[in-house]
Amino acid sequence: MQKRASGVLLHISSLPGPYGIGTLGKNAFRFVDFLKAAGQTYWQILPLGPTGFGDSPYQSSSAFAGNPYLIDLDTLCAQGLIDSPLSAPADTADDPDHADFSALSRTRLEVLCPAYEKGRVCFAEAFARFKRQSAQWLTPYAAFTAIKEHFDGAGLADWPDRACVLDAAAALDRLPASVRERADFYAFLQFLFFEQWTALRRYANRSGIRIIGDIPIYVSADSAEVWAQPELFRLDALRRPTAVAGVPPDAYSQTGQLWGNPLYDWDFHKKTDFDWWLRRMRHTLDMVDAVRIDHFRGFEAYWEVPNGASDARGGCWRDGPGLSLIDAFTRALPQSRLIAEDLGDLDDRARSFFRAAGYPGMSVLVHAFDTEKESAYLPHNIKENSVAYTSTHDSETFIEWLCTGATDDRTRAFAADYLRLSPEEGLAWGAVKAVWGSPARIAIAPMQDILGLGADARMNVPSTVGGQNWRWRVREQALNDEVAARLLHLTQIYKRAPDAASMEASE
């Protein structure tokens, strides 16, 4: 039986560093060291794909590619691929608390160009091998990205050459040779990303740290998949979604959440024995040690909204693939570790689906304190086969919830009594203790809750775009020995720390 364990949620982009965003460089390796010193087993991250609309990692232009912004410049400098990053254009905002996506979009690619010019020569053999092994997803992604750039960043639906939209295989042949060369540049950035990611993951695993990745259930309408594999989706003749994804009104929004992603043609996926989904899941599991599937409920039933609707209220539920997809996962990936995001209002049918799937679900402490009925998220009610969280990237931090998000003073008082909160101890530590002490096999806290941070450290507000969403970063001095020692002590008390034998086996 799996031992009790714990971990920390912190996306790569939220790591400290001098170049406008967290990267796969030395501070990522130092965070692994921090987790090891703190007795943790898991590092949970958000999706690693190129960020899309609103800088969201859940609106990526590829279901397979990595985010080039996360490529570490110091590593490239040490390899001789670029000169000192400090001599590059000023895309390195001096705000240590927030990623600067605007500046990155203007100048980061220019910084990476010399790495391509040198690297395609000195890494010619390895790059060629990477292109062969990854061709199925890499070729369309690189072409799509280069063509999108050629059309001044226009989304797929707005490309001025409709033939390029409708015939992906021949699109590059219609355009200047420089676009094909640019596609090779984007392919090389993927080579660099996966080289750096593989080194980081290897270091983490050798340190006893397992990485929990995240797979969005949907892909962006402006993506390589919609362009090159339109048969996967419900699209019209011009590659536009006939209906889009979202969720009905909920605790996050009275008008629901209108995500705008194209919906899958599940009949096609069933006819192909879910080949694309299995390739996607294998690819993700090759990168990480476990996978959280976002909006898992959408496999049972999904909210369909007419394309062009102003919000999600006019949608309706449609049947998803159900257990036929889960059975395909089980047959093809029998040893995989999957986590089902099962938050929100669920009906009996959805709950039955989650039980039949058998994957660990999520229990979130900031959603536990309902004074009208007893919540299943209260720590004493949490099931063993689950992952317990203090909060998530989509919720308030615990401190934000306690100070402003709790519905009333009665709810706040109930939480304070239940958790035995003490200002002397630190209010957020009471939340961490409760989750660490729960029956859940895995306990996770966002770094914001470990540090007791409030609203200004929130990662995302669902159903909103812009503002501070996805931008928060941790300061380097916060990842210190005192915090690690305190987390280690708590982790040992609640029997979640790895034993010496398991640590030796990982080294």
Which range does the strand content fall in?
Answer: 5-15%
Mean pLDDT: 93
Count of helical segments?
A: 17
Order of helices and strands: EHEHHHHHEHEEHHEEEHEHEEHHHEHHH
Whole-angstrom Rg:
23 Å
Tell the overall outline.
globular
Cross-sheet strand order for the largest sheet: 9-6-3-2-1-12-11-10
Number of strands: 12
Distance between the termini: 22 Å
Largest sheet: 8 strands, parallel
**Protein structure class:** alpha/beta
Helicity, in percent? 25-40%
Give unreliable regions as ranges.
503-507
Structural description of this entry:
With 507 residues, this protein is α/β, with parallel strands linked by helices. Helix content is 39%, strand content 11%. It has 17 helices and 12 strands. It has helices at residues 26-37, 73-78, 101-122, 124-150, 162-166, 177-206, 224-228, 266-271, 275-287, 323-332, 348-357, 398-405, 409-419, 427-436, 447-450, 481-493, 500-506; strands at residues 5-9, 42-44, 210-215, 243-247, 257-262, 290-293, 301-306, 316-319, 338-340, 361-364, 386-389, 442-446. The strands form 2 sheets. The chain has an 8-stranded parallel beta sheet with strand order 9-6-3-2-1-12-11-10. Strands 5-4-7-8 form a 4-stranded antiparallel beta sheet, with no helix packed on it. Helix 4 packs across helix 6. The protein is globular.
How are the elements arranged and paired?
Blueprint: E1 5-9, H1 26-37, E2 42-44, H2 73-78, H3 101-122, H4 124-150, H5 162-166, H6 177-206, E3 210-215, H7 224-228, E4 243-247, E5 257-262, H8 266-271, H9 275-287, E6 290-293, E7 301-306, E8 316-319, H10 323-332, E9 338-340, H11 348-357, E10 361-364, E11 386-389, H12 398-405, H13 409-419, H14 427-436, E12 442-446, H15 447-450, H16 481-493, H17 500-506
Parallel strand pairs: 1-2, 1-12, 2-3, 3-6, 6-9, 10-11, 11-12
Antiparallel strand pairs: 4-5, 4-7, 7-8
